[in-house]
Design goal:
Layout lengths: L8 H21 L33 E3 L15 H13 L1 H21 L5 E11 L9 E14 L4 H67 L5 H35 L8 H4 L11 E3 L3 H7 L1 H21 L5 E12 L5 E12 L7 H67 L5 H35 L31
Parallel strand pairs: 1-4
Antiparallel strand pairs: 2-3, 3-5, 5-6
Helix pairs in contact: 2-4, 3-4, 4-5, 4-8, 4-10, 5-10, 8-9, 9-10
Length: 502
């Protein structure tokens, strides 16, 4: 019987290299394998059309249509250079927008941390010791030690890759957060600007009516002096003047506070825009047509819906991170060291080889963590559903308000014209001694009320349109995005969130 040959050092090294090669091959074969559910974008049902998109009756200022909406720079539709300048400055300077941008940087940095787990880690170490000899021994000894340690945890089951996937989704969510902040910012700037111009127009209306009422009060005083008017008429005329005059400071307060709000939105001190905006100007004119598009377009355009979907994606990927803890962890480890000994000799050592760790018993912690991530995923899906429904509601609310307010304005305009005739007729009859002063008083108060209401209605039409633009997700160019779009096909069941096989 032949005697077994001893294993040489070269054979042992070859065996180790073959083992390492096998581990690498397994890693390459398993590279496409990731545990946990693959993300499936939700597929909400969108209505075929907006209920509020109806044919506008004759005489209406503007109407919403189902034409495709280009809302990237919707504020320009008001044709107001001041509004355009304020909006563009706000986009450059606003602090909330800057905070949203820092969150994007934060998400990208977190992604880098997660992706670091795909690469080997190498650490270096070094030490020095002075060995003092006992009494009588010759000299002291200097001991040096230096080395490297490396570990490469192979992501065979995709736990790290799922973490990177989740981080990528969080980056998308942060990007949509910037767009959402931009949509809100533009609407807030336009809203404050329209309110400012509305208050200024109310001041104009109050001053005009105040002048007319003072003229009437002068007539009443003259008639009283010759015995053709009573003291009660004089008191009512003066009271009417004082009541109207008392409204002007209220409007001035509101107008100036709107300027302060605009200044802060532009990251300026509150009083910086006073000189620029205190001069009176008219309300911005609404466009004749407002393309609202289709409800299905909203699913691609609204940043809050896109952000909610990205958060759902991130939560889904975290399930895979948790499931990966069930499986063994394969690693390649290596060390190299150099040092001196007490005999003044240099030594060195090298190690290289695979290792495996496998959690056998964790007291149910791993299972509980999977259930936790599944619950968080389900919460994210419910939040997504709520976001979609709220978005549809926002648009319908804005559409009905925009349409009905124009009908309100039409009736108010007719009321203003009728009240002006009533003031002229009652004042003429009163000065001729053929009418009662109470008729003049009622007519003047009705005229002022209707004119002020008309200005408020015109302001409300503009603010309703701003709310519609915001509800439609206007304020950024979604057509240039290359990210996946939600809302591909209708689905009514919960199968969108059902966990897939691990």
């Amino acid at each position: 019987m032949s005697k077994a040959k001893p294993v040489t050092g070269s054979q042992r090294r070859l065996t180790g290299l073959l083992l390492i090669a096998v581990v690498f091959l397994v890693a390459l074969l398993a590279n496409g394998c990731m545990v946990g559910p693959n993300f499936q974008p939700p597929q909400p049902i969108a209505p075929n059309q907006w209920v509020g998109v109806v044919k506008a009756p004759a005489g209406q200022l503007s109407e919403a249509t189902a034409q495709p909406a280009d809302l990237a720079e919707w504020w320009r539709q008001f044709s107001d250079p001041m509004l355009t300048a304020l909006t563009e400055e706000a986009l450059r300077r606003n602090l909330d927008l800057q905070i949203a941008e820092t969150r994007l940087r934060q998400a990208r940095a977190s992604r880098g941390i997660a992706a670091g787990g795909l690469w080997p880690s190498v650490t270096a170490s070094g030490s020095y010791q002075l060995l003092r000899q006992a009494s009588g021994a010759s000299g002291n000894q200097n001991l040096y030690l230096a080395g490297f340690d490396s570990v490469w945890e192979l992501d065979l089951f995709g736990g790290v890759r799922r973490a990177v996937e989740s981080a990528d989704a969080n980056i998308q969510a942060a990007l949509e957060g910037i767009r959402d902040a931009q949509v809100s910012l533009i609407a807030e700037v336009a809203l404050n600007y329209v309110q400012l111009r509305g208050y200024q127009q109310e001041i104009v209306i109050a001053q005009k009516n105040l002048e007319a009422q003072r003229h009437t009060a002068d007539i009443t005083h003259k008639l009283f002096s010759v015995g053709f008017a009573s003291a009660l008429d004089v008191a009512n005329a003066d009271s009417n003047v004082a009541t109207t005059e008392s409204q002007i400071p209220v409007f001035e307060i509101a107008a100036q506070q709107s300027i302060y709000s605009l200044s802060v939105l532009l990251a300026r001190h509150p009083a910086d825009l006073l000189d620029q905006l205190l001069p009176f100007d008219s309300l911005p004119k609404v466009p004749a047509q407002v393309p609202a598009g289709l409800p299905s377009d909203l699913l691609r355009r609204r940043p809050d819906i896109r952000m909610s979907e990205a958060k759902l994606h991130a939560a889904t990927a975290q399930i895979g991170v948790a499931v990966a803890d069930f499986f063994p962890v394969f690693s390649l480890t290596g060390t190299a060291s150099w040092g001196t000994t007490v005999l003044h000799m240099w030594s060195h050592a090298f190690t290289l080889g695979p290792s495996v760790t496998w959690p056998i018993f964790q007291g149910g912690a791993i299972v509980s963590n999977v259930h936790l991530q599944e619950a968080l995923r389900d919460q994210a899906f419910i939040t997504y559903q709520e976001t979609v429904l709220s978005a549809f509601q926002d648009v319908e609310n804005a559409l009905i308000a925009f349409t009905k307010e124009q009908q309100h304005r039409k009736v108010l305009k007719e009321a203003v014209e009728d009240n002006r005739k009533a003031v002229e007729m009652s004042l003429q009859l009163y000065t001729e001694g053929l009418g009662d002063f109470l008729n003049v008083l009622v007519a003047q108060r009705s005229l002022y009320t209707s004119e002020d209401s008309l200005v408020q209605s015109e302001r409300n039409i503009a603010t309703d349109l701003i709310a519609l633009y915001k509800a439609l997700g206007g304020g950024w160019d979604y057509a240039q995005t290359t990210s996946s779009s939600p809302g591909r096909a209708p689905a009514e069941t919960e199968s969108n969130i059902a966990p897939q096989g691990y």
